[in-house]
C-alpha cells in the first residue's frame, strides 16, 4: 500500500511550537495545491474516492480524524491527531475520512491542481481498476 506516516521535526522553544514544510524535503513532491477541511459536522464521513494519479500529504493541524485506506485488497485505519505527523497517500488508494473532532482542521498538500477527471468515485470501478 502506498501510504506512509511522515514525522516532522518540531521546531519549538519556550514560546511554543513551529513546523516547517518544504517541498521535496519533508514533503516528498512538488506542491501545486493546498486545501483544508474544517467545521466538519458530527458523524460526517467524507472522501469515498481514489485518485488515478495524485500524491497527497494530509496533516491534522488541529484536532483529529480517522482515515480508512483501501488498496483494493487490504483496508487499514489511521488516526491523524498531531500536527507533527503527515499521512502520505500515493497512487490508487480508496480513502474515507471520519470521526472528525469539532476542532479538526485537516490540511492537505497535493502535487497537482484540482481535476475532477482524476477521481474514481465509484467503489466497483476502483476495484476493477486496481484488480483488472
Ligand atoms: C481527498 C480528500 C482527503 C475543489 O474545487 N478544489 C479542490 O482542490 C478540492 C479538494 C475540492 N474541490 C471541490 C470539489 C467538491 O465540489 O470541493 C468540493 C468538496 O470536495 P470533495 O467532496 O472531493 O471533498 P472530500 O473531503 O470528499 O475529499 C477531499 C479531496 O477532494 C480529495 O482529493 O483526497 O479530501
Low-confidence stretches: none
The description of the largest β-sheet is: 5 strands, antiparallel
| Domain module count | 1
Average pLDDT figure: 97
CATH superfamily: Jelly Rolls
* Helicity, as a percent range: under 10%
How do the strands line up in the largest sheet? 1-7-4-9-2
Shape summary: globular
> In angstroms, what separates the terminal alpha carbons?
17 Å
Counting DSSP H or I runs of 4 or more residues, the number of helices is 1
Helix-strand string: EEEEEEEEEEH
Architecture blueprint of SSEs:
Elements (H helix, E strand, L loop, with lengths): L2 E5 L25 E6 L7 E6 L3 E8 L2 E6 L4 E6 L4 E6 L3 E5 L6 E6 L8 E2 L2 H8 L2
Antiparallel strand pairs: 1-7, 2-9, 3-8, 3-10, 4-7, 4-9, 5-6, 5-8
The structure holds dTDP-4-keto-6-deoxyglucose.
What would your notes on this structure say?
The structure is a single chain. The chain has 132 residues and is mostly beta strands. It has one domain: Jelly Rolls (Sandwich). It has one helix at 123-130, and strands spanning 3-7, 33-38, 46-51, 55-62, 65-70, 75-80, 85-90, 94-98, 105-110, 119-120. The strands form two sheets. A five-stranded antiparallel β-sheet has the order 1-7-4-9-2, with no helix packed on it. A five-stranded antiparallel β-sheet has the order 6-5-8-3-10. The two termini are 17 Å apart. The mean pLDDT is 97. Bound molecules: dTDP-4-keto-6-deoxyglucose. DTDP-4-keto-6-deoxyglucose binds at residues 33, 35, 37, 46-47, 56, 58, 95, 97, 108, 114. Residues 33, 35, 37, 46-47, 56, 58, 95, 97, 108, 114 line the site of dTDP-4-keto-6-deoxyglucose (T46).
Amino acid at each position: 500500500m502506498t501510504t506512509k506516516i511522515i514525522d516532522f521535526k518540531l521546531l519549538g522553544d519556550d514560546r511554543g511550537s513551529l513546523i516547517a514544510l518544504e517541498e521535496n524535503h519533508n514533503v516528498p513532491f512538488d506542491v501545486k495545491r493546498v486545501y483544508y477541511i474544517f467545521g466538519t459536522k458530527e458523524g460526517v464521513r467524507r472522501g469515498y474516492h481514489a485518485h488515478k494519479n495524485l500524491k497527497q500529504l494530509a496533516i491534522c493541524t488541529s484536532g483529529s480524524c480517522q482515515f480508512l485506506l483501501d488498496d483494493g485488497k487490504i483496508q487499514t485505519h489511521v488516526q491523524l491527531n498531531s500536527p507533527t505527523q503527515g499521512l502520505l497517500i500515493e497512487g490508487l488508494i480508496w480513502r474515507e475520512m471520519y470521526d472528525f473532532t469539532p476542532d479538526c482542521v485537516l490540511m492537505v498538500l497535493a502535487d497537482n491542481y484540482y481535476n475532477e477527471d482524476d477521481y474514481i468515485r465509484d467503489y466497483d470501478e476502483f476495484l476493477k481498476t486496481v484488480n483488472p
